[in-house]
Design brief:
Elements: E1 7-14, E2 26-30, H1 38-47, H2 54-72, E3 78-80, E4 84-92, E5 113-122, H3 132-136, E6 140-154, E7 157-166, H4 167-175, E8 189-191, E9 213-214
Parallel strand pairs: 1-6
Antiparallel strand pairs: 1-2, 3-4, 4-5, 5-9, 6-7, 7-8
C-alpha cells in the first residue's frame, strides 16, 4: 500500500424510510470512484516501483481471474496473501427447506440451490488487518457531498438521477435560511449513468468486522 494517503471521500445520504428510527437523518457512504480496469491496475502496480513490466503483471492478474473462480467453484477457498480469502456460499431457492432426512433421498441439489456466490473475507490478522475500524486507519477520510437520488421522467421513461451538493455549500445555504438546501436536490451535479458516485452503502452504517463481500 502506498505511503501517500489519498483521501477517501465520504458522502452523506438522507434516510427517507419513515418506518425506521433512522428516518430523517443523514448517514455516511463512500464516494466511490470509477472502477479501475485490470490493465489500469497493472499500470498502477508498475508505477509503484514493481520490478516487473506492465505486460507481465497484467498476464498474472488475468490468470488469477481465470484460476480463482475455477478453484472456488470446486469448493476450494483461495487466500491471496494478506488481502483475504475468496470462498463460495450457496443461495437457497425460496421455500427450498428440506422437511426431513427421508426427503433427501434422490434429491437433486439443483432443485434447492438458487445460486453460488463468491464471497470475500478480508484478512483480520494483526499483521494485515483489513477489517472495519482497523482498515479505517489506513484511510484518510474527507467529508464531501450530500447525495440524493430522485426519479425523473425523460422522454417518457422514468430514470433515477443522482445529485451531489458539497456539504460546505449546503451548510452555507441552510444558514442563509434556504431550507431546501439539505436534500441535495438543488445546486449539485447529477449522475444518471451509474458512474463515479454509485455503489456506496446506500444508507450508511458499518457492516462490522469480518463481514464478507458478496459477488
Amino acid at each position: 500500500m502506498s505511503a501517500e494517503k489519498i483521501s477517501l471521500g465520504i458522502n452523506l445520504r438522507l434516510n427517507k424510510n419513515d418506518k425506521t428510527t433512522a428516518f430523517g437523518k443523514y448517514y455516511p457512504e463512500v464516494d466511490v470512484q470509477k472502477t479501475l480496469s485490470l490493465r489500469g491496475f497493472a499500470r498502477h502496480m508498475t508505477d509503484h516501483g514493481c520490478s516487473f513490466g506492465r505486460d507481465v503483471i497484467e498476464s498474472v492478474l488475468f490468470k488469477i481471474t481465470e484460476c480463482l473462480p475455477e478453484l472456488v467453484s470446486q469448493g476450494v477457498p483461495v487466500q491471496l496473501g494478506g488481502l483475504g480469502i475468496f470462498y463460495p456460499t450457496a443461495e437457497a431457492k425460496p421455500n427450498a427447506g428440506i422437511a426431513s432426512i427421508a426427503d433427501m433421498e434422490g434429491l437433486d441439489p439443483n432443485d434447492i440451490v438458487q445460486g453460488i456466490h463468491i464471497r470475500f473475507l478480508p484478512d483480520s490478522s494483526k499483521l494485515d488487518n483489513l477489517c472495519g475500524p482497523a482498515f479505517k486507519k489506513a484511510c484518510s477520510l474527507e467529508l464531501r457531498n450530500i447525495v440524493d437520488t430522485q426519479e425523473v421522467t425523460v422522454n417518457g421513461k422514468v430514470r433515477k438521477v443522482q445529485t451531489l451538493m458539497p456539504i460546505a455549500s449546503a451548510v452555507a445555504i441552510t444558514r442563509s435560511g434556504d431550507t431546501g438546501a439539505g436534500t441535495g436536490s438543488t445546486g449539485g451535479s447529477s449522475n444518471t449513468g451509474g458512474g463515479s458516485n454509485t455503489g456506496g452503502n446506500n444508507g450508511g452504517g458499518d457492516n462490522g468486522d469480518g463481514d464478507g463481500l458478496q459477488i
